[in-house]
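[Q] Does anyone have a clean structure-token version of this?
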Amino acid sequence: MSETISPEVETKLYPLLIDGKQVLAEETFDVENPSTGEIIGSVPDIDPESIQLSLQAAQRGFKAWSAKSPAERKEIILRYADILEDNRDRLISLLMEETGKPLENAEYDFGMLTTCLRFFVEEVERLDQPVLHDPDGRFLHYVQRQPLGVVVGFLAWNFPLLNVGYKLGPALAAGCSTIIKPAGVTPLASLEVGYLAKEAGIPDGVVNVITAGNHVVTEGLLESDIPELVTMIGSTRGGLEVMKSSCTSIKHFSVELGGNAPVIVYPDADVVEAANKIVDLKFANSGQVCVSPNRCFVHESVYERFLEAAAARAGRVNMGPLINEKERSRVIGLVEDAIVNGANVVTGGKALEGDGYFMEPTILSEVACDMRIAKEEIFGPVLPVIPYSDSDDEIALANDTEFGLAAYVFTKDMQKGLKAARDIKSGSVCVNEPHYSVQLPHGGLKQSGVGKDCSRYSIAEYLTLKRVSVLVD
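[A] Here you go.
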């Protein structure tokens, strides 16, 4: 049975947010700081009753929020972004505690939340609702966009607030209500973001934030016919389970799932510049990034020079820990498997002693495509570098994966770069510099997901497309 508590109570227990109220549950689970292993708070393990309450609250919230004019919603959302900025230091500090991120990384994570809120509230005004041609001249036809409904979002732990922004931004701008479930290992800053929604004037039930210690209890969210859209950022296996559980009624899906991003470094590339950019992206967020380079194909003629430059750059990176011991052990296991099967350690390769779940930035050479580390998503600070020759089909090597989220190409030959961008089967291809922005669509092909985050293509996921025909003559 759930109970309501007053917002003034300040403890290490962070309540759920349901229908504008802070709610507890009988069971809780702890959240730890991966830099130290210390417990920094606890959160409720939601029960089935509260799952149903959140669905009903979101249903009521949708009616209230979608009834407001776009201008009214814009004013409230921009106020919400300002309130979040007023609480910036506190939220960033909490984010650093629950993720172990260095300050610069946490600032980026938080900044993307407010950027998304402000971007989508402007982008929704630019959506076209075109008049359609009638060949007989008898009808006026036009397209009407309307809020889709209740949105359920399951989020990953690597960028907690960025991920909230990717879902909350378009949902609120479109006029939808939300039930957000942040990852169980990093829920604290996301809950605090939810608590501030009421202060901004967002109606009760529009933003609900829940936590769960296991996925079984949240299946009630998916099996319900109340949600219109189920969206997720996570693993491919997790995405498949979410989609299966949701198929009790017709729903929309937008899921960004696993990646195994290839990099191709052609012999004509600026090798040092390529190595620096690849290393910077690889070890960002300790390699816990869905678009992180996972298989780095370097032409044999520049292979040794690339390894030397990459190792030098890796020695200067500033990394936080992996999220927990389970993840660190998994990544170390991939490295050990690669070494047993013939890979060489250029730098790193070991867990660091002491508190927290730190690991050395690691570069492996002589990696083969059939090794586990080249087939599985690493999601950790390991860069496998694979040599290729003129006799190899580098595009086929890049495409030899079930995933298709991101890819990178380095070359001075733009014809070669454009051809690679055309032929690589991936949701995004960056030539000569990795680049991501809220204005650009982000999503995968193959087993890396369906739908898009960011850009005008994302907000379309949260809106209906209705054709209206009016007899004129």
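[Q] Thanks! Anything notable?
[A] The mean pLDDT is 96.
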